[in-house]
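Researcher: Going back to the complex we discussed earlier. I've cleaned up the inputs and rechecked each line, so this should be the final set. Can you rerun the prediction on the complete assembly and write out the structure?
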Amino acid sequence: MSEPEADAVFHALADTTRRDIVRRAIRREQSISSLAERYTMSFAAVQKHVAVLERSTLVVKERRGKEQIVRANLDTLRRATRLLDEFEAIWRDRVVRIDALLAEEASGATTAPSTESER
Amino acid sequence: MSEPEADAVFHALADTTRRDIVRRAIRREQSISSLAERYTMSFAAVQKHVAVLERSTLVVKERRGKEQIVRANLDTLRRATRLLDEFEAIWRDRVVRIDALLAEEASGATTAPSTESER
DNA sequence: GTAACGTACAACCAAATGGTTGCACAACTG
DNA sequence: CAGTTGTGCAACCATTTGGTTGTACGTTAC
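Model: Rerun complete. Updated structure for the full complex:
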């Protein structure tokens, strides 16, 4: 997931109503009006939330007759999860590096300390 | 993760600079000024990004002498990952439900909902 | 002490967000 | 045909965001 895309996805997820819409859309396809019934806010407000989700590609809209059907895009959701998993991987890498460093110290090695990649 | 907390976490993650700060902080502790050096924006701007991350508890600050040290909080990161995993679980549940429904239809179950249209 | 460094915070600004209402329009229903 | 329903969109508003500059303050170095 490219960084700008990730911006859009996490922004879209940073709202309780939008996460709820995604959950409903995952369970089953939803028309925008059926979604709007569920919330106290106006139809237009819900429409805007759906638009935010659509821009992030977390959902796709598909016209069916006079209705617009909202479907969840699991792929984007998975890419977001994977991005968070990368953070975890960075953490594990750090642990490995520190372990290696400690082992080196313990063995009394006096050679050059690790070439920290610094990033 | 409570919903308002999730709002803060995903909002914090919805910015390339902030995700980058988190990555750096995971690799090693960072002072705010050492972080600020890495970006073209002002020190105050970086300070604000760190404040957003701190509010979401994705990082914690700890004073060390005159410096303020930023450390990543993996726990919050993991809770965010878990929340995304729940979406995946909803999806799997849907698949199971649909499979069950199809199996029921195929077996010509006595209580099949569509038997009315058979003749 | 003074100087330099790292930080905190306020004031300010432009742009984006999240909500509203109102209106137009296309597609079904009778 | 007329009426209802579902949608799209513009205009408007208050608040938040993401950046700036400037100032003040505590800590370390000399």
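Model: Worth noting: Chain B has one domain: 1-107.
Researcher: Good, that matches what I expected from the previous run.
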